[in-house]
Amino acid sequence: MELLIDVDRSDGRPLQTQLYETLRQLILSGSLKAGDRLPSSRNLADQLYIARNTVTLAYDRLAAEDYIAARPKSGIFVNDRLPDAAVLVRSRQTASIGKGQRVRLGANPSFTGRAPMLWTDRAQRPKFDFFVGRPHPDSFPTSFWKRSVARHLSYARGTQTEYGDPRGLPALREAIANHLRATRGIEAHADQIIVTSGIQGALNLLARVFLSGRDQSSVAIENPAYQGAAFLFNSYGARLRPIEVDEFGLIVSQLEDFGGSLVYVTPSHQFPTGYTMSLDRRLHLLDWAYRTGAYVIEDDYDSDFRYDGPPLTALAGLDRRGAVIYLGTFSKSIGASIRIGYAVLPRHLLDQARIVKSLLDNGAPWLEQAVIADFLNEGAFIRHLRRIRRSYMSSRDALTEAVARHFPESLLSGGEGGMHMMWTLPPGMPQPADVQQFAALCDVGLYPLSAAAAYEQGNRKRFTERSLVVGYTALSDAEIDEAMSRLARKLSRH
Fold first, then answer.
1. Looking at residue 192, what DSSP letter applies?
2. E strands along 171-294, which residues?
3. Is 398 helix (H, G, I), strand (E, B) or coil?
4. Residue by residue, what is the 3-state secondary structure of 326-363?
5. I want to staple 452 with a disulfide (CB 3.0 to 4.6 A). Which of 28, 172, 468, 469 is the partner?
6. 288-306 pLDDT, tens per residue?
């Protein structure tokens, strides 16, 4: 163990006294705990550039007062039981701060913000948990991952010990560009792509580019919206302008008097309603952006999972003037713990974005990027999507049938794609928060908007008062049916 100890030769006290008092204080403060091994007298003397005899004298004094003890053939250790004098000193140190008296720790941090509700301890989750955005645990491509990881580690040749391009691994950015060209109609070069830590990392990057250092910035955002975006923009001091959504997506006409430079949308599968933005609305939004000079942040949430009808071209695929910033992620298709997402930026924003990315984290982990590049390049990702898409579509059908059977007159929206639906409760059912409590009693997890990472503004909360957000992809068809049966029985008794 190396100890952070300074001895001052200009101090009038002997070096052995300084060393004794410093070690004693480290023990009293808890920095050195019972059972911790101390350096040998020779090692500590070499570390401090002092005579070994000086260290020996300090150790002898600490041992005489029962702070430390030597163990034959093992070394010198802090005693398990400290002397009574040490306990008294600790008590006096604690008592020196009066009850209710605030300890000054330095300047208060200036950050203010809220965290989105995404993580819960697995041990505390209900058996039948309908939380949003969780792929089925069995869907992870473990076999491919093992093979690819082993291959890259075998041929790394120092790559794992070097800094990489802050924008991301070139092979992954090239693979993402090819994938987007084929599946989302986006003509982007690899140098326009920046690999991020999921969507949240991309949003942080954009907030730094557009909002840092500006007073009273405004961001237009869907209402309701994703908490992670709303809370993040708020934390940078931006004012949020809520824009309502309906079954055709964002109501673009409400943007006409908006003077800000950013609009955040989830057009493929709006979160949390599940609505898909129509082609007319997409073209209207692009036309508005061209007229005003604003940028549209397209969070292509859940775009990998479309079950009914042909896939829609992404907003960025329709954009011809560099007004759309496209965000994608592998969190929903592979797993959230991978923490790999990406942003596709217009060329005129790349210089600023590259600098910001360097300041934020200097790049994503190399190995995960290399494996995902293989996953895309070898066609395994497309095969993976086909397989889990079938599974998730079956789960969607199971949920639709179970809700219709047990809770007639309910409305489920967003079933055309994605990993969740919004459940508008029928007349006669309790409020969403009450349904959540009843569900918990039968080991079922159901979530109102605010508990499902969604955020709705305004006094007239159209969805919050009667809706639940129901993620279905982490449960089997049988589990979905059992959960809804349990809830129906519980509610019928109340």
1. G
2. 193-196, 218-223, 225-226, 239-246, 249-250, 262-265
3. helix
4. EEEECCCCCCHHHCCEEEECCHHHHHHHHHHHHHHCCC
5. 469
6. 999 999 999 999 988 889 9
For the chain, the helix, strand and coil percentages under 3-state DSSP, each to the nearest 5 = 45, 15, 40
At 406-456, the pLDDT tens digits run 999 899 999 999 999 999 999 889 999 999 999 999 999 999 998 999 999
Asked if residues 422 and 414 have their Cβ atoms less than 8 Å apart, the reply is yes
DSSP-assigned letter for residue 81: S
Residue 71: beta bridge partners?
75
Sign, Cα dihedral of 472, 476, 482, 486: negative
Residues in the chain: 494
Rounded to two decimals, the pTM is 0.79
> CB count, 10 Å around CB of 323?
21
The full set of domains in the chain, from first to last, is 15-95 (1.10.10.10), 122-135+383-492 (3.90.1150.10), 140-378 (3.40.640.10)
Strand pairing partners for 427? none
156: confidence class by pLDDT, cuts 50, 70, 90: confident
Q: At what angle do helices 227-235 and 198-210 cross, to 10 degrees?
A: 30
DSSP for 432-461, please give it. HHHHHHHHHHTTEE-EEGGGGTEE--SSS-
Rounded to whole angstroms, how far apart are CA atoms 164 and 153?
Answer: 16
Q: Is 476 left (phi over 0), alpha (psi -120 to 50) or beta?
A: beta
Q: Is the pLDDT of residue 86 over 70?
A: no
Q: Which DSSP letter does residue 73 get? A: T
Report how far residue 424's alpha carbon sits from residue 409's, in angstroms, rounded to the nearest whole number. Answer: 9
The answer, yes or no, to whether the previous bond of 426 is cis (omega within 30 of 0) is no
Instruction: Report residue 460 CA to chain centroid gap.
Output: 30
Count CA atoms closer than 13 A to 294's CA, side-chain side.
24
- Plot region of 458 (φ>0 → left; ψ -120 to 50 → alpha; else → beta): left
